[in-house]
Amino acid sequence: MHILYPRPRKMTRSASVEQSAPNKPPKLLPSELTPEVARDWDNACRMYFMHKGIDTGDQVKMIAFGMMDARLHTWYLAQRVTLDAGTFEEYMTALKNAWLESHWDTKLRRKVLGSLQGSRGFYEWALELQNQNALLYGNTAHLLDAQLRIQLKASICDELTIPMLRAKLTDDLTLKKWIKEVKYLDDKRLEDLACHRKMAEDLYKSKRATSSNKPSSSKTYNSSSSRLGTLSEAEHTLLMKHRGCFKCRKFYVSHQSKECTDGTPEASSYKTLMEVDAIAAKLKTKTVAAVGTVGGVMPSSVLDDGSDSEDDMYVAPFETAHLIWPCLLTGPSSASFE
Facing residues of 316 across strands? Predict the structure, then answer.
């Protein structure tokens, strides 16, 4: 009789359990044993025992050779008598103690207790904690439903805390029903958040489309700065040609830069000076002058020494943007013209 020992296989990144059918013995493939793999191995073995009706005393020996990892196989052979004589529960306890990470149960419990919802949906996060806590089932580190509910309630995100308190969920709810009620509140929160995000995105896209459709205009300043840039050579020439001010940058004014009281233009609304701007300013100045023309009509005797002829008249037009004329007019009385 020849006994075939399993050959060592290349280690995989994550362990796995294979079982072709519920009434067939499962296989524990070579890999690092993790709490998740240990749980899968436990479930597959129990399913096999149930479908085959294997007695309690024979359960360990019926599945032990399904451990395909050479290290686990050697471990079993070294204490085969003791393991075969015990129960399947005792076998699983010994397997976990020998091959799982040291203090794995304490570390996993701390992971559950330290978990926060953060930006995840509540239901997704709650399921994750339930699955992690399930790995501790049968262990003293396992959290009861009431304990897990307290942990979930204390670690939900701030945005969900107020709606949950307002809902006044009763303590007699089962963990499953409580999670369902909180999931409803969180779904409403996520819907509102998605709606606000979409509104913000639409507004941003609308602003970008509006700004891209605006005609570009050349400017002599940096748009990111509120300070007006210096005059270009062309602008300087235009102001010189059209009696402009280098400070306020207006055409056809009666002051110079050092006398300017208008101040420098705002950089945000300033546009490069063009010839058409100068022409428009000139036309505007002429219109104002025509409306404001002052004509002085006086007898020549006032302006000419010794002459009192009524036919000798002097008409003096004055055209200026700003006219101050301090004077004293004297002459014959109105009776002399009658």
Answer: 296
d(CA 132, CA 79): 31
**Hey, CA dihedral for 45, 51, 52, 56, is it positive or negative?**
positive
* pLDDT tens per residue, range 260-286: 888 888 887 888 888 888 888 888 776
Stated pTM of the model: 0.53
Query: Which span out of 172-181, 186-195, 287-296 was modeled with the highest average pLDDT?
Result: 172-181
